[in-house]
Amino acid sequence: SIINVISCLPVRDVKPPDVCAWADKWIDHFKPPLVLAVGKQAWQKVSGMGERAPGIMKMNGTLVHASGWSHPFGIVPCVHPAAVLRDMRLIHELDRAVGKFARLFEASLA
Predict the structure, then answer these.
(1) Cα separation of 49 and 72, whole Å?
(2) What three-state secondary structure class fits 58?
(3) Contacts of 3 by beta carbon, 8 Å cutoff, 6+ apart
(4) Are 4 and 79 in contact (CB under 8 A)?
(5) Any residues with CB less than 8 A from the CB of 88 and at least 6 apart, and which?
(6) What is the SS3 assignment for 93?
(7) Rounded to 5 degrees, what are φ and ψ at 44?
(8) Sign of torsion, CA 38 40 87 105?
(9) Greatest pairwise CA separation for the chain in angstroms
(10) Which pTM does this prediction carry?
(11) pLDDT (tens digit, 9 = 90+) per residue, 21-35?
């Protein structure tokens, strides 16, 4: 499962109390075994840590075990592609995170 920051985008740069409120219902309904959290907002929401979550660049491409949800699942935080467009040096970070997610997902199917 992929949760993209675009689905969590604050309206007009005003951050409502819960910019990814739909994610709670979506994750509880589908119970994904693995989530690629694309971008800072998605990472903060899915991690359950909010603004206390370690930075997206620090956690990019790592496997984090979710807590506080109705079922256990893994999270792979990922730098957002828009960040790569602003700084092409981040392409390797994007590749690393998506590659890690793909390997973990493939292994979960075996």
Answers:
(1) 15
(2) helix
(3) 20, 23, 26, 35, 36, 37, 38, 42, 45, 46
(4) no
(5) none
(6) helix
(7) -60, -40
(8) negative
(9) 43
(10) 0.84
(11) 777 788 888 888 999
